């Protein structure tokens, strides 16, 4: 933890101790500057990226592993650090009499949850490379791509682009990504990041290396939780045995573990406690569905879909007894300016994407097919709090 974070933890606006010092640091969708216990993965990535320290581009690569193993956390932290290198001119000695100054390649991180179109893809890459703002309207995709080629033509050593969350329902297809990569300038290499095994994705055919990320071991996950708690909570707010309990339940998934910590903190704060209890942890674990949809996926949905979900998580059991009842309740809300037909369509779309689930109600002696209700596949408390904070 850096000095700024330590000072922030001790700041008090009202003179009273508080359980929560920084909710963002506890969030399962936040990546901190120094991810805990991922040293071997970091070294593996540095081995792959080693050519950049000689001013050259690495080959294309595919980084893969199940949800919650730290792929995004490590790559974003690493790219943030490496991106400082282009501003540092270094001298490489070629012979005893010759020296050449050079700069390292630039590094760009893209999230396919946010860049879901060809235009958005090239816009995000270009916007990360230039100081001036790139217009989002009144410009075509071909113009963007031409501008990107012009920007990189002979003016830079090159760019390494990390493309995260490939293969998810709302992201570009693998074949579309291959075409997008092919449209990049020749002095761009890419690191694709997804959950599929390398043998199951088309992207691996265009890479020189595939890097697998294993789930966290239990003690590593405890370290992740305690690191986040040391930043986001008051001192000694969570005991080691409670962090161990969360880690054992999460089975190597840092997203689920951090979601449990986040929800348990909410319960403790609501109860006015200065530390987390086993009751808070058990309530948090009980709330999280297995399997759990990443809150990053939920919070990357369009604003109108998120607004529907925000209403959904506040409905009582009767209002969620069927899709029709849920549609009526959400459509009648003052905070959702959507027709009932649009609400129902959104619910079906999100059920198809796995964000919510249609659960068949138990038949009660009547004829015909029993109605289905909608259940979120993410923890409602965590989504509600993160949505409201944003």
Automatic annotation (TrEMBL):
Residues 38-188 form the Orc1-like AAA ATPase domain. It comes from the Archaea. InterPro entries: AAA_16, Cdc6_lid, ORC1/CDC6, P-loop_NTPase. It holds the Pfam family AAA_16. Keywords: ATP-binding, DNA replication, Nucleotide-binding. Residues 223-285 form the Cdc6 AAA+ ATPase-type lid domain. This is AAA family ATPase.
């Amino acid at each position: 933890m850096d000095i700024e974070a330590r000072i922030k933890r001790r700041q008090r606006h009202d003179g009273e101790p508080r359980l929560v010092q920084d909710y963002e640091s506890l969030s399962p969708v936040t990546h901190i500057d120094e991810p805990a216990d991922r040293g071997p993965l970091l070294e593996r990535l540095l081995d792959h990226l080693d050519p950049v320290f000689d001013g050259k581009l690495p080959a294309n690569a595919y980084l893969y592993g199940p949800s919650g193993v730290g792929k995004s956390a490590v790559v974003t932290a690493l790219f943030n650090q490496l991106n400082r290198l282009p501003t540092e001119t270094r001298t490489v000695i070629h012979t005893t009499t010759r020296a050449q100054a050079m700069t390292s390649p630039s590094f760009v991180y893209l999230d396919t949850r946010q860049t879901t179109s060809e235009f958005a893809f090239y816009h995000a890459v270009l916007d990360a490379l230039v100081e001036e703002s790139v217009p989002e309207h009144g410009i075509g995709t071909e113009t963007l791509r031409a501008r990107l080629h012009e920007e990189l033509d002979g003016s830079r050593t090159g760019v390494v682009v990390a493309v995260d969350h490939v293969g998810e329902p709302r992201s570009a297809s693998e074949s579309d990504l291959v075409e997008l990569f092919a449209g990049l300038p020749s002095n761009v290499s890419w690191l694709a990041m997804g959950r599929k095994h390398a043998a199951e994705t088309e992207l691996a055919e265009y890479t020189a290396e595939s890097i697998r990320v294993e789930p966290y071991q239990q003690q590593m996950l405890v370290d992740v939780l305690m690191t986040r708690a040391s930043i986001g909570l008051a001192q000694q707010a969570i005991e080691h045995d409670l962090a161990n309990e969360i880690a054992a339940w999460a089975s190597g998934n840092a997203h689920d573990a951090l979601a449990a910590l986040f929800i348990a903190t909410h319960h403790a704060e609501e109860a006015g406690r200065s530390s987390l209890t086993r009751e808070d942890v058990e309530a948090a674990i009980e709330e999280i569905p297995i399997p759990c949809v990443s809150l990053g996926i939920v919070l990357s949905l369009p604003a109108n879909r998120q607004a529907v979900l925000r209403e959904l998580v506040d409905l009582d059991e009767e209002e969620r007894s069927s899709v029709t009842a849920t549609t009526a309740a959400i459509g009648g809300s003052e905070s959702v300016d959507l027709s009932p037909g649009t609400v129902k369509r959104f619910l079906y779309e999100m059920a198809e994407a796995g964000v919510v689930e249609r659960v068949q109600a138990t038949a009660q002696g009547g004829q015909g097919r029993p109605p289905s209700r909608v259940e979120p596949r993410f923890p409602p408390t965590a989504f509600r709090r993160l949505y409201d904070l944003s």
